[in-house]
């Protein structure tokens, strides 16, 4: 049974459930793969090898449990999720020594499902970035090309899953932070409907935008992870008390796309798209038509205002959320404070990285007296118009399709000097977060020019995750086997 | 909107951040660039549009006001930079 790490989560889960492989063997296979690939990609911020081995042994002693949907499956989680007794840094120096005393609800649910948690994945500091270069610890490299970024902010999650270090991961998606790394690393990533997954224990960036979402190597794997974490949680007042659909069943029963109407927003398919991304995504849409789908043009007329709207809202919420890091109750405290104000200022200035400080300052500015109406309130109004675009589109179609990003993975350092250019990369992913709707990134082949993965995005109405997953599965099955990353 | 170096310093102070001269020099043109880009929202007529502050609207979640003990004092203090077993310690204020 060599190369266990190449299995999908669904395959390894079945092997574990029938006792064909032990939890220990699977965990050891992942740890060996981490040892072999981590020097190249640097996807992780911490590794809990001993604890994982102990947990795997304990599971083996107890034996496979059919009630535990992820029994013995090794996972690695973005370091933005609190994990009891395990460091949680958010990629920031301000939380360098932070060890939470509670699990995020999504983490607790994975543990209840029998998953083995191997470690924590790298990320842009406080999830602020599109390349994982804003991590205060180190950059992560793309398993397809080590000179390129894995995307962000859940770049460690994207790279670790693509490289076979684990069978799935959770990231967080505030403006595309699950879908972009999934796209750049050639795996599947899902951003659920706002409220579908509890945010309790997810360190907040933009509270009205953030959602936890799975990244995995197949659509069915993604469905299994979503099933494990979805549902209402009294600890998150924005989590929605709606029935959780049978995601795995939806994927397994998906046969064709007959009767499905896919909307193509003209603003997502026009200028600004690199030829290779355009080509790969159009090919996937052609395939969808062959499989029975009908396509109709739709319009997202607000697209050109989406980046401005998003960054005003996200930075405003960030400036407010990150006020809690003051050097008093947890996190970094300066050694040089004379009085209290000094303690706040010095602790924050020493602890936060440059991009975080930039966003806090802009967020504070757009919320401050005299500017609130022109920026924050205005952005909230445009947000409603963006949501209206989606509502009108879904009167004409069941799903919307478009590219995840105008380009494939870019070289490290490619955009670090110009923050605005980096923000513009998010043009196709952020509207979905503003609207609070679900979206899935599906690999649709390698770009003709760069040989790097291209992701197609499927967007749906609220709580249509089962529909998204089913459609993605039909496309995935028709594409045939996906190549393994070439650089690991 | 034109943003001045003094204004950047003022806002940084509001956010409890110190700006070195070098960082201010870096930030002023970057913030100017980003805010100018954001200014394009002014083109859109939003008269009469109700602001949308979040996707979950028109709901107020209530729960019974009951005393619960979710965490121990030791847990809550466990990450404090300075504490005495009972309180978070900060520099003297008055």
Largest interface: A-B, 74 and 49 residues
CATH topology tier name of the domain at 2-260 and 408-413 and 437-479 in chain A:
Amidase signature (AS) enzymes
Q: Cα distance, first to last residue of chain B?
A: 40 Å
Structural classification of chain B:
mainly alpha
CATH architecture of the domain at 5-42 in chain B: Orthogonal Bundle
Strands of chain A, total number: 11
- Give start-end ranges of low-pLDDT stretches of chain B: none
Shape of chain A: globular
Main sheet overview of chain A: 11 strands, mixed
Helix content of chain A: 25-40%
Average pLDDT confidence of chain B is 93
Rounded radius of gyration of chain A (Å) = 21 Å
Q: What share of the residues of chain A does DSSP label as strand, in percent?
A: 5-15%
Radius of gyration of chain B: 22 Å
How would you describe the oligomerization state of the chains in this entry?
A: heterodimer
| Category by helix and strand content of chain A | alpha/beta
Q: Categorize the overall geometry of chain B.
A: flat
The name of the CATH architecture of the domain at 2-260 and 408-413 and 437-479 in chain A is Alpha-Beta Complex
Strand count, sense and closure of the main sheet of chain B? none
Q: SSE order of chain A, as H and E? A: HHEHEHEHEHEEHHEHEHHHHEHHEEH
Write the layout of secondary structure elements.
The complex is a heterodimer of chains A (488) and B (94).
Chain A: H1 9-17, H2 23-41, E1 44-47, H3 49-62, E2 74-78, H4 105-112, E3 116-121, H5 155-162, E4 169-173, H6 179-185, E5 188-191, E6 211-216, H7 219-229, H8 247-252, E7 261-265, H9 275-290, E8 294-298, H10 303-321, H11 340-351, H12 354-367, H13 373-396, E9 399-403, H14 419-424, H15 430-435, E10 439-446, E11 453-459, H16 465-479
Helix pairs in contact in A: 2-3, 5-6, 7-16, 10-12, 10-13
Chain B: H1 5-14, H2 21-38, H3 73-77
